[in-house]
Amino acid sequence: MAAGAGGLAAAALLLALAGPRPVPAELTDGNNEHLKREHSLMKPYQGAGSAAMPLWDFTGSTMVTSQYVRLTPDERSREGSIWNRVPCFLKDWELHVHFRIHGAGKKNLHGDGLALWYTQERLTPGPVFGSKDNFHGLAIFLDTYPNDEATERVFPYISAMVNNGSLTYEHGKDGRGTELAGCSADLRNQNHDTFLAVRYSRGRLTVMTDVEDKNEWKNCIDIAGVQLPTGYFFGASAGTGDLSDNHDIISMKLFQLMVEHPLEDETVDWTKIEPRVSLLKSPKDNVDDPTGNFRSGPLTGWKVFLLLLCALLGIIVCAVVGAVVFQKRQERNKRFY
């Protein structure tokens, strides 16, 4: 397990220098032809008001109404979750989540937040936003309360974590030690709809938000080198402690992405691979800034210019030194004639 934990936290110079890559294309427009209804939760909810729902199970304080699925009410020490019963065997997918986090608490007097899951385990209550720690798979955390008083990042804060069962989420540090990437987002107590999209395709994880009532996606997380098995379960959970909020899920829609894969991928048993991330800067090296971006910035124009300038100067210096050495050898050889 120690080796697995080290692998997930290993640093790679390439991505540390380059930073997150830009998103190459728009997220899906929600084409119903690619909607996977067996993995989607939409109104009208079948079994609303009862203890049974086709395709979905729920636990804890979760309550299903005709308008939303409330994971926790605005009450202290509550936790709830909802989980898809059907394992997902898609290699490329995109999840759109319509959610709402709201309550009576004022600034920094509310919590704790909501989590979205694609994991091997399901329906297991625990300390990580109402679900178990040391999970296998992917978690996206929508954290609304800063537990670390020394942090400079702005909350609410969205972050991603991939785990092979060996890593522990540290609440006291808001999960910073195991966070892969993240961003701040003003998503609480909004009077308009709030959405989050999670895209996984060909080893690349992208998270985008639409929380500003602009009807457009805003980039939050973009990570390459992510390996997730097939056969895991989608779910959502939330928890409250001394502070509280309503955590509501209005819909979860999963879309299949039509993506070509290399021929060698056909020989891989995707149900047996281990969740992991490669080419990543170590999460232990995270350094906060007020915007929540802890990685080195991308190679912007001036950085590329400086790199090219340094390379050019290096070539010129080598050329000059080479010319001087060559000239001296020529002069030395003339003395023997």
List the helices and strands and how they pair.
Elements: H1 2-8, H2 13-18, E1 56-60, E2 63-64, E3 69-72, E4 79-84, E5 93-102, E6 113-119, E7 136-143, E8 157-164, E9 181-184, E10 194-201, E11 204-210, E12 218-224, E13 226-227, E14 233-239, E15 246-256, E16 276-277, H3 301-334
Antiparallel strand pairs: 1-4, 2-3, 3-15, 4-14, 5-10, 5-15, 6-7, 6-14, 7-8, 8-9, 10-11, 11-12, 13-16
Keywords: Disulfide bond, Glycoprotein, Golgi apparatus, Lectin, Membrane, Metal-binding, Signal, Transmembrane, Transmembrane helix
Membrane topology: Single-pass type I membrane protein; Single-pass membrane protein
Pfam family, one: Lectin_leg-like
Q: How would you characterize this protein structure?
A:
This protein has three helices and 16 strands. The longest helix is centred in the last third of the chain and has 34 residues, at 301-334. The relative contact order is 0.21. Helices cover 14% and strands 29% of the residues. It is of the alpha+beta class. It has one domain (35-277): Jelly Rolls, CATH 2.60.120. Strands 1-4-14-6-7-8-9 form a seven-stranded antiparallel β-sheet. A seven-stranded antiparallel β-sheet has the order 2-3-15-5-10-11-12, with no helix packed on it. Mean pLDDT is 84; it is low at 9-25 and 284-300. A hairpin with a 7-residue loop joins β11 (204-210) and β12. This is Lectin, mannose binding 2. One of its GO terms (biological process) is positive regulation of phagocytosis. Keywords: Disulfide bond, Glycoprotein, Golgi apparatus, Lectin, Membrane, Metal-binding, Signal, Transmembrane, Transmembrane helix. InterPro entries: ConA-like_dom_sf, Intracellular_Lectin-GPT, Lectin_leg, VIP36_lectin.
